[in-house]
Design brief:
Layout lengths: L2 E2 L11 E2 L2 H8 L8 E5 L1 H13 L7 E5 L5
Parallel strand pairs: 1-2, 3-4
């Protein structure tokens, strides 16, 4: 689900606004029987996992790649 926290000035956007987790909560309230595939910052992954589990997705059906800074 594409989402923008804030659209750039002058850019037309008719998709979700705010955090992607907020968009999931609004658009997909029942996620029983689904799988989740996530990639992003550790904080976003943690928030998304909580959101998916609260909506009924089993944690063992959530797969993710945390983006961490390279040293």
């Amino acid at each position: 689900m594409p989402a923008l926290s804030e659209p750039e000035s002058g850019v037309l956007w008719d998709g979700e606004l705010g955090l992607v987790t907020e968009g999931v909560q609004r658009s997909l309230p029942d996620l029983r029987g689904t799988e989740g595939y996530l990639c992003g910052s550790p904080a976003m992954i943690d928030a998304a996992i909580r959101t998916l589990v609260e909506a009924g997705c089993r944690e063992r059906h959530i797969f993710y790649d945390r983006f961490v800074p390279s040293g």
